Amino acid sequence: MENLELERVEIKYNSMFLDGKQHIESYAFVNEEIRYDLEKIENALKYFDSYLLSYSIWDILYEKTDEELDFDERLVQDMLYDMRFNIKKISNLELKKEVEECILKLYDSGSIVQINNVLLYLDDNYECEDCPSLEEVYTLDMYLSHDIKDLDLSVFDYEQLLEIHKGLKNDVDVRLYANPKYHWSRMAIIREALENYSIDVSKYVEAGFTENEIDEIREGLENGVDVSIYTDIYLHHDEMREIREKLEEGKKVYKLRYDSSQLDIIINALEEAKTYYEQYLFDSYDNFDELEKIIKDLKNELPHKLW
After folding, report:
1. 11 vs 124 pLDDT, higher one
2. Cα(244)–Cα(222) distance, integer angstroms
3. Among residues 260, 218, 265, 269, which one has the least CA distance to residue 239?
4. What pLDDT score does 256 carry?
5. CA-CA distances (angstroms) from residue 295 to 209, 256, 272?
6. Is 115 helix (H, G, I), strand (E, B) or coil?
7. Which has the closest alpha carbon to 141: 29, 19, 3, 7?
8. What is the pTM of this model?
9. Which end of the chain is more exposed for a tag (fewer CB within 10 A), N or C?
10. Closest by alpha carbon to 149, among 175, 179, 125?
11. Adjacency order of strands within the sheet including 9-12
12. Do the Cβ atoms of 285 and 277 come closer than 8 Å?
């Protein structure tokens, strides 16, 4: 995990750090920008453990008074619990007000911070027994590094998250392939076409074309030919290449569905017909030139292995 190519999250001492400096004690994904004091208080209470907040709040209360406090962190924790679950009969309203002010100070000091759609609780005093999972690390890094709150990364497995992470780092539109039904290898095909050629091949992946077939389609798109002529799921990629090369040479390709043996039968039949007409119906048949052109096209301009 030490060698992960992350953008904003760094793994040290089995824990996650923001930009390699501030320890990420806790975090949550939020849907909207938190602006107002009441929103800040409500979201801190909602997403962060009362036990975690109580120690920081107690420290702030302790530092602001010259006298010994007549309560400890447990009272603060109980207050946070009551506030979180909207307990109406809070007897110590003065402490409640002080706790709210302390929560806002945690925002002001940068202990609680929102980055894109992530609400972070940062703390220098940390203990971490379990190393975070790769999925957790990559997901958090992507949400911190990019404004992608419209994407639900929780539905992707580790390999799929890697493909999304690579795409984001290379500034491609990952929404074109961030689909949990795509195998990671299919996602990679779309990502690489976007990165290397700025060509979107997602609809061909969706249609079920193989990687080699998509390469032929992508080359055709890059060279400006009409790929619809050979985007046929039943064609082998070698056959698709033959068509693409014919199109790039400026030759006509007729979209018929014949295999090579059927095509040979058609050509032979036309040649026999042409010979018969020339010998016996020369005076009554005026389209020899057209028939000859058809035979030539079938022989020379259609990929003979194709249809």
Report:
1. 11
2. 11
3. 260
4. 57
5. 32, 14, 11
6. strand
7. 7
8. 0.73
9. N
10. 175
11. 9-12, 15-18, 22-29, 118-122, 112-115
12. yes
